[in-house]
Amino acid sequence: MSIVLELDHLSVALKRGRGKPIAVLDDINLTVNAGEMTALVGESGSGKTIASLGVIRLLPRSAEIAGQVLLAGTDLTRLTESEMRRVRGRDIGMVFQNPLSALNPTTRVGNQIAEVYRLHTGETDRAARARALDLLGEVGIPDPADRLDDYPHQFSGGMRQRVMIAMALACSPKLLIADEPTTGLDLLVARQILALLSRLRHEHRMGVLFITHDLSIVEEHADQVHVLYAGKSVEWGTSRSFFAQPRHPYSQALLAAVPRLGQRRLASIPGNLPDPETRPPGCRFAPRCAFREPACEIDYPAPDAVGGTVFACRRAREISPAAMLDAVLEQPAAPPVVSHEAVLEVTLLGVDYERTATSFLQGVLGRKDKMRALDDISFTLNQGECLGIVGQSGSGKSTLGRAVLQMIPYHGHVILKGEAFDAMSRGQRKRARRQIQVVFQDPKESMNPRMRIGDIVAEPLKFTGLRGQRARWAAAAALLDRVGLSDQMMNLFPGSVSGGQAQRIAIARALATNPGIIVLDEPTSSLDVSTQALLLNLLKDLARQDGLSYMLISHDIAAVSYMADRIAVLNGGQMVEYGTAQDVLARPRNAYTRELIAASPHFRSHHLGEPSETLTYHLSTAQPSAVQTATAQTKEFNP
Amino acid sequence: MLRMITQRLATATLSLVILVTIVFFMTHATPGGPAFSILGQKATPAAVNALNQRLGLTAPLWLQYAIWWWHLLQGKLGYSYLLNRPVTQLIGDYMMNTLALYIGAILLALVLSIGLGLVQGVTYGRWPARLIGALQLSLYALPTFFVGTMFILYFGVKWPILPTGGISNLRIEHPGLLDYAHHLVLPILTVGLLGVAALSRYFGTSVHEELGKDYVRTALAKGLTFRAVLFRHVLRNALRPLVTILGLSFPGIFAGSVLVETVFNYPGLGYLLWRSALSQDYPVISAIVLLIGVLTVIGNLLADLVNGLLDPRERYE
Predict the structure, then answer these.
(1) How distant is the Cα of A406 from the closest Cα of chain B, in angstroms?
(2) Mutate which of B11, B17, B222, B307 to test chain A, going by most A C-beta atoms within 10 A?
(3) pTM, whole model, 2 decimals?
(4) B231-253, pLDDT tens digit by residue?
(5) What percent of chain B is modeled with pLDDT above 70?
(6) Percentages (nearest 5) of helix, strand, coil residues in chain B
């Protein structure tokens, strides 16, 4: 087997401002074989993107690189800049996250693909265009000849990523680096992209370095797995042995933090990732690790190997994986207070969008095309329940949330505790709207960057009749406490908190008016998996304490299955499936639902260590605790 | 693209209708009416009445408004009180001179701004960019008439190489295009330099912003040189805000050219406006205001269309 890429003791230090360079990547050893995929896994701040940019040497000028980057035997760190330019695009293809911004918006995709081919082969424009056409076909773009002269914004998210891949493939590179290529894509699309990458690497005998924060997505496709934490490798090995039994506490927690169908508890990791400036001298995970001993904090553990993976943990050998996992799995919350009293009823709700005039005459006459975004939606939300709204982007799920929040015009009825919004007076409606609050996908975007956290949370308290700045400030502190944040945060601005903290603040703000219902619109989509796990667990706890009802809007049916009592599946503005979570997951009637379920990561026995017993997942049982054992549970989920 | 053009044309038409209405009420609401302006404050009521009759100012306002539109659509803008010539005829020559000055100055400003802005955007945060920034600020702070006067002092008086006023050499029998261009140099330099100050700053910021975008990293990862990335990918994207600003700055440039044309005795619309304002020649003033409005609307329309060419997302496809 030939090695395409070898990182040999690669370290990268970056300068921030005028200070000394800070090591962001520390002594990484990694290989990618021809025709194979190596997954480089880590959460934000782990240094995984620095590693990929280090390979093609596109780091900021101030970066200091030590160690070797061997591409088919050549050390890239020793090449001159002009030699390196010949490697980029020809020997190494790059696919970045978010293809909409990674493609030039004002250049036709055919030209963007042809450009790299022409550059490295010196072929004619005509040959390069023919090559671009072939490539678009190869990556699975329908009618490639018609799409060659389109611009990036005319493609859907998944198709754009295919264009990126076509561009990276143009010169048949030995190595393809894909940096979070599926993040931000719907699950079904993400899996298609992964399948495409797998096919291409086999056909072209090309090595793939796949960078991601989501372990579950690479499970089927990766040959090697390499987990980074705070700039250090914590565990690496073949994918088969890694997924059979991850050994490092961080790997285990990371894997168990991904919501899977049929999972009752999510792992959570207390604390935050250390900043590069304040990394502990010993094991970097030690401050957050339940099994740390004094020696862990003094020096970095030497690599140890058991069962096909290498891990940097001095205690992984002695502690059973099951015990390790149990330490990070959150205890299941108290059973929910479901009263079967409907707090929200939606009947025959529909939303029409007006398209802008398509011609001058239409514009002058004020005529507009109508497009149906949602049609005939009916559901009931009981007190203390969570209703999951699942669908791909464009399915109308966010529109449904906005209609329930009375933010857009709709027809049909939204009935809050027996009173329909359309039958209320203006004043009543205004007061009733406070009963339904919302948490958005990107928490920082939903906050005024010039307001202090304390003011952001205190602002809605004005509508609760709470008088006096000081009283509201104290109430805001109490709200932050409920979401697990300290009141020291109140004087900060949104720019200086992490994504997970910002989302907690958004939840605190939503709780301020003491609502009965919170609409959660993709609340965790922009968060790392371990942060997502913490947040979902928090939401679950809050619901149990207060009898809150949620409308959880998400494209991730596994995350929804972890939270929801009932699930509604939307496709193309229609509700194609609606029922209790158990029914929908166990006996999906709709083909689209079945597809979504099949694409989601499933709860599998080996994720919880040695199987202690095998249970058929009783989806009809309301109380899973009855079948839970103290340590590891195994649930086979059979759709 | 066609849909975008028709939409923009509709908006431009609406802007023009509003503009015409404003200009009409502005001129017809002068204290005492235009008659006093023409005949002077001490005119007898009989004389005022007679003049009002002749000018059709005794009719109800809505009728006057309708007649104004009717004349406007026929291209009749009335007679200059002062020179007793049709306004359209009068304005024609001046407008050509002003357009020559405008277009020359804008081209100069564009070329200099793109050059300076590219350097500024690429070296952002380092000394070349800081130097350019300081230059922009000082240029921006200089008053127009001061720059114009200095140019006259240096290039007209100290080293008499350029003409300092007018549009043609009166001593030449048939002044040609070269002579015309010669007279344009100093006014164009003055207006153009002042335009550079703002435009290059916008463009510099825009280049810097574009350089931070993901597609630049993609282009570099293809193996392109930085220069190729800059000219093939960044330039076009960075031009969009510049074009918008340029379209919006027409009235500003014009306001500046009133001063410049006066300083240089340059027979353009600004100069005519200044003279007409002094003598309260309302038909000429309103025609010029209207014309500036039309030029501004056209400028914006052009900016939109150019942006549509630069950026496919603007095309409403």
Answers:
(1) 29
(2) B222
(3) 0.82
(4) 999 999 999 989 988 888 877 77
(5) 93
(6) 80, 0, 20
